[in-house]
Amino acid sequence: MIEPHAPAPPGVPRSWSEGGTAQARLPVRPGIGRFLVLAGVFVCAACGLVYELELVALASYLTGDSVTQASVVLSVMVFAMGIGSLAAKRLRFRAAAGFGAVEAVLALVGGSSAMALYAVFAWTGDWGGVWSGGPRCLLVGFSLAIGLLIGAEVPLLMELIQRIRHQDAGGAVADLFAADYVGALVGGLAFPFLLLPQLGQLTGALLTGAVNAVAGGALVLGLFRRDLSRRGRWLLLAANVVVLALLGTAAALVSDFERAARHAVYGDHVRAAVRSGVQETVLTGGTRGHPLDLFLDGRLRVDGSDERLYHQALVHPAMDGGPHARVLVLGGGDGLAVREVLRRPGVLRVDVVEPDPAVVLLARRDRALSALNGHAFADPRVRVRTADPFCWLRRTRGPYDVVIADLPDPGIAASTKLYSQEFYGLARRVLAPDGRLVVHAGPVSSRPSVFWTVEATVRAAGLRTVPYRVAAGASAGGTDGTGRPTGLSQAPRDWGFVLAAPTRPVLTLDPRESLLPALNPASLRADARDAARTRPPYLPPSTLLHPRYTR
């Protein structure tokens, strides 16, 4: 602490050393200067919230567990903001220079965070357990760094606004936080409705960093330039120019970077990649020697080497259990489950409810995928509706003879409501009295607790169940428990299913309907007995308010 009447430190106005706040020498009137500072607060707050949302969105996409990622990012960031505010106390006697330096660093760190995270994920492939690998540490590191820098803004801006016109602390805090919170609102709305759909995650983050650098640099160099020495002004200007050059170069290389990263994740045979408002859809292979694979948000959804075994095991036991004139497919936008449904005689109508129109568009137009699904969507009996399956079920009454839930794996936070007791209650409501519901419930061998939680949840909705599984055998391209590719693996894979009905269903399969020797009535019953041996003593059902699935 500086003693009263002591000589002021070099570069610090004398009035500060005497315990007061120096009046700024502004190039504009104080009222205009105050407005410009609050405008800077507004812009910086908007950029700061975009950085937070960008980290949450990208980490959720890379891991699928949005609840955990949001909790980690936000809690670490808020903690770091407190530390940053304390640390900024040392800079308050040089508030203008400190704020300019903080904004330049924040623009570079926040703007490049998405690209750095995706690069580590793409080229290391290591985003496994809850805290394993470099990417997880990098996520925490970026959250910590951005939080520290955002936290340092507030005390420095408070010092700057007081230098323009001294006022009581309560009034200054009210003005500052009002601009801050309104800016956060604009940033929070701009991210999902403008930046993400129009620019994408990487370009959106880089542009935000550029805006942050321009706003911080312009405020200090334009309004408080007399508080900096000549050397300080040139250093801050050079730092901002370097930051803008780096961000601009990265933005110019985003397309090349995304292609290279995509090939690092999916291999050299990417045939289509579409980013919609719902998810990223990538098709690979489809040529001789390379089976067609479909990835949704980086998770293998369709494995061309054994997709027929999966879809026949999903569809035909439910179709064999009774009438099947009216069929509802929830998900299944790739058309492969519909292909199996249409093979059965007596099908009069198939309704497909798919949340992502991009998947259906690929299934219609991509030559390899449309050939694989037998041009199912060209059949006049098929009607496609783009809607969230949960919301759509609330608006319809059926009845349907068969409901096929061909949805993303359980255990992913985004899919939790589609594996809830409430969801199955809605599905039961649209079933005919003798109708059947079949649910893809994830692998039995690697995640038995998730599989049996699905089964317990279906039972809790008032349906009788018959769980079964189908083993796919050894795979050259293994996946983890959520379907992410893990490189070469000889581990056997399996799929678990739950067949359900208002009265106890019978697990049966007409051998004439299966085109695969591995799928027959005897193997189906044997695999069902194997699955039953993994049943835990008791698992509670999963609900919207109390999801039970864990990764």
Shape: elongated
How many helices? The count is 16
Structural class: alpha/beta
Q: What is the number of beta strands? A: 13
- Uncertain residue segments: 1-20, 127-132, 474-492
Give the spatial strand order of the biggest sheet: 7-6-5-8-9-13-10
Query: How many discrete structural domains?
Result: 2
Mean pLDDT: 85
Task: Give the distance, in angstroms, between the N- and C-terminal Cα atoms.
Answer: 52 Å
**CATH topology grouping of the largest domain:** Growth Hormone, Chain: A
Domain PABS: 245-502
Pfam family, one: Spermine_synth
Binding site for spermidine: 311, 334
Catalytic activity: S-adenosyl 3-(methylsulfanyl)propylamine + putrescine = S-methyl-5'-thioadenosine + spermidine + H(+)
Give a written overview of the molecule.
By secondary structure, this protein is α/β, with parallel strands linked by helices. It folds into 2 domains: 22-258, Growth Hormone, Chain: A (Up-down Bundle); 305-532, Vaccinia Virus protein VP39 (Rossmann fold). It contains 16 helices and 13 strands. It has helices at 14-17, 30-63, 66-87, 95-124, 133-164, 169-223, 230-252, 254-266, 307-319, 336-342, 357-365, 367-372, 389-395, 421-430, 448-460, 521-532, and strands spanning 270-275, 280-284, 293-296, 299-303, 326-331, 349-354, 382-386, 400-406, 431-442, 464-474, 477-479, 485-488, 492-501. Strands 7-6-5-8-9-13-10 form a 7-stranded mixed sheet. The chain is elongated. Residues 526-551 are annotated as: Disordered. Residues 245-502 form the PABS domain. Pathway: Amine and polyamine biosynthesis; spermidine biosynthesis; spermidine from putrescine: step 1/1.
